[in-house]
Amino acid sequence: MLNYLCKHCHQSMAYIDYNRSPYCSQNPCQRARVQAEILEHKTKVNQVIQQSVELFRHSQQPTENDENHPSTPINAILPYNDKALVELPEDRKEAFIAHLRRVYQSVCEQKPNAEATYVAELKPADDELTSTMLGKACGTCKGACCGLGETHAFQDYWSLRRYVSAFEKMPTEKTVINDYRKYLPSHSYQAACVFQGEMGCALPSDMRATTCRNYKCDGLINYENTLRDAGTNLTHAAGTRGRTVLHISVFDETSTQIIPIAKPALS
Q1: Nearest by Cα to 116 from 84, 148, 74, 80
Q2: For residue 78, which of 152, 6, 157, 142 has the smallest C-alpha distance?
């Protein structure tokens, strides 16, 4: 009779449980299962990236730029926004404006808790090169996390107060509303942030919410940490949804190229 052992603690398991998952129900074993799945996913995505880039380069004429790049670029695994780009409805625009009016009123009355507060403190800006590289990585992702901005765009007391503090005196509500309204794009991603357009966030950086200016997803943080010690800026980035690779780009600080995905992709 076969003896089924947990892949982590090596304790015996019933066949029906092992067939469901080769890890038993103990907490350390379940953590090991998750870690193994993450590693497997990363390995498969890296294989898709490598295969896709190699096939693409074999189909192209070699350039001097190829020779100047190292043979081991950075791989970045990121989420991906695959929502449809649609005309931004008037009701969503007006929902944002109504939210902004409430936030403006809370700033005027100095009531930071009158509306939801997302993030109060603005982190120091990245250096120019890091900002460029992270921006290109976010371009690969196309704003998977930005969709959470919905019709509030994470605008809160601290974000708007920071923006209006740049004026010599407190601007009127009409001025602030018009400042933001003019950046609402004609098209944005369905059920995403109202400012999330085809070319990314339609707002200038100084008008974006503190949350938006601070936030980095796990994939972006991992990429930034790798970038810091890599000795190269050449990046092969994959935008993924679940276990599927949906988008691949190759970029450095000066150029970006979209790469066709080699088949079969992850499933």
Answers
A1: 148
A2: 142
In whole angstroms, give the CA distance from residue 246 to residue 230. Answer: 25
Q: Which residues pair with 248 in a beta bridge?
A: 238
Residues in the chain, pLDDT under 70? 1, 61-71, 264-267
Q: 209: which 2 tokens? A: 């919410």
What's the rounded Cα separation, in Å, for the pair 27 and 31?
6
Distances in Å between the Cα of 158 and the Cα atoms of 75, 125, 146, 182, 216 are 36, 17, 19, 21, 19
Integer Cα distance of 43 and 53 in angstroms: 15
Which tokens belong to 147? 């969709």
pLDDT digits (tens, 9 = 90+) for 53-71: 888 877 776 655 555 555 5
The whole model's pTM is what?
A: 0.80
CA angle 102, 108, 114 (to 5 degrees): 45
Q: How far apart are CA 234 and CA 75, in angstroms?
A: 9
What does the alpha-carbon distance between residue 89 and residue 191 come to, in Å, rounded to a whole number? Answer: 11
Record the tokens describing residue 27, joined without a space.
Answer: 């907490």
Query: Strands of 74-79's sheet, edge to edge?
Result: 74-79, 235-241, 244-251, 256-258
Q: Which of 127, 157, 134 lies closest to 223 in space, CA to CA?
A: 134
Amino acid 168 reads E
DSSP state of 171: P
